[in-house]
Amino acid sequence: MSRGSLFIVSGPSGTGKGTVCSELIKCENIFLSISATTRNMRVGEKEGVTYFYTTEEKFKKMISDGQMLEYASYNGNYYGTPKKAVEDMLEAGKNVILEIEVQGALKVKEKMPEAILIFVVPPSIAELKKRLIYRGREDRDEIKRRIGEASREFSQLPKYNYVVVNDELQRCVNEVLDIINATNEKQRIIERLLNELKESVNYDD
Amino acid sequence: MSRGSLFIVSGPSGTGKGTVCSELIKCENIFLSISATTRNMRVGEKEGVTYFYTTEEKFKKMISDGQMLEYASYNGNYYGTPKKAVEDMLEAGKNVILEIEVQGALKVKEKMPEAILIFVVPPSIAELKKRLIYRGREDRDEIKRRIGEASREFSQLPKYNYVVVNDELQRCVNEVLDIINATNEKQRIIERLLNELKESVNYDD
Q1: pLDDT tens digits for A131-145?
Q2: pLDDT tens per residue across span B88-138
Q3: Percent helix, strand and coil across chain B, each rounded to 5?
């Protein structure tokens, strides 16, 4: 069995990247990364399923020990991606999807350069505005703020491995699946050649 | 016209990456990067075509000024990739191919993270050995050395964007052309969205 690969999905709010990820994890061998958090468990949530729940003290120790691929605080609580949880899934041959914003994505890429960065974009900026309005964010200032945010995120696009346009959900999901399959194929080729090299050295034929 | 993209092609000797690159530059809008060197011009060579010829003093100044994407010395002469020459070609919308070994490739990637790293591999290690022998490198120690070198290079494979198997030349060339086309398409999408964002801010519709 080959090692799985890590895919980081980003994109401005309103591009539908969440829906794309929900579709992806319906497929075989594709799983969402589970974050750690210091916030309290809510009714219906489950340890190790919705989140890994931990204390602020332990969370900060994980940060200082370099065990967090990325983290952020929000409303007084910490949220982050524990490296070990991701590593264990990859080792088990699973493909892992991490849906995070651009700053976090680039931090993970620094620590795991083999991670594949995928940026989901809307077909056009006009369409992005339409979707934000449709989602009930009709406040003109709020939409302007989000477009400004999108603008800053877009400036990091060249650092992403792939840009996929979410024009039609299933087509977009298929494009990401093609990326996942091509990455897995690359991984198989690497592992096969490294094995052949090892044997070649062992037997010196 | 969209900005061109930079493609760095590496791979162990014997994989035929040179032949792949020769085929690529026969295609429209794909050009080899031209290196700078301190060695003397030979008969039949041309300034700005085979190399940019320069003095050791000027070459070293370019290094200290950060104007070299990567460089190496060989047989007492310096060889390197001048950043400006690459930038000018990209600005002019040209796709640039840089055929260099792994260490240099990773240095360029640090300075230009948008560069696409392509690793050309043989279909198998047995086939690689066969090709090295066929190329007249029958010396057992030399082949062992080259396999060892390939082994070290392969360990950097996860940092490459793409791994292409050179099993059949034209199929391999087509696969690289697909990568180039997909990258150009990504670039067009980025530029279009950034333009739309700019207009959106200007007109604030």
Answers
A1: 888 777 567 888 888
A2: 999 999 999 999 999 999 999 999 988 999 999 999 999 988 888 877 756
A3: 50, 20, 30
Q: What does DSSP say about strands B77-82 and B68-74: parallel, antiparallel, or unpaired? A: antiparallel
Q: Which residue in chain B is spatially nearest to A186 when comparing CA positions? A: B163
Q: Can you tell me the ipTM of this complex?
A: 0.80
For every residue of B98-141, DSSP letters joined together read EE--HHHHHHHHHH-TTPEEEEEE-S-HHHHHHHHHHTT---HH
CA angle B20, B23, B28 (to 5 degrees): 130
Contact with chain A for residue B151, Cβ under 8 A:
yes
Inspect the interface and report whether the beta carbons of B114 and A154 lie closer than 8 Å. Answer: no
3-state secondary structure of B157: helix
Q: Cα distance from A68 to chain B (closest Cα, Å)?
A: 21
Residue whose entry in the numeric block shows the structure tokens 């007109």:
B203
Distance CA B150, CA B12 (A): 5
Which residue of chain B has the CA closest to A205? Answer: B126
Residue B164's SS3 state is strand
Using alpha carbons only, give the angle B89, A114, A96 rounded to the nearest 5 degrees. Answer: 130
- H/E segment holding residue B88: helix B83-91
Write down the pTM of the prediction: 0.85
In this prediction, residue A145 carries a pLDDT of 85
Examine the pLDDT at B205 and tell me if it is beyond 60.
Answer: no
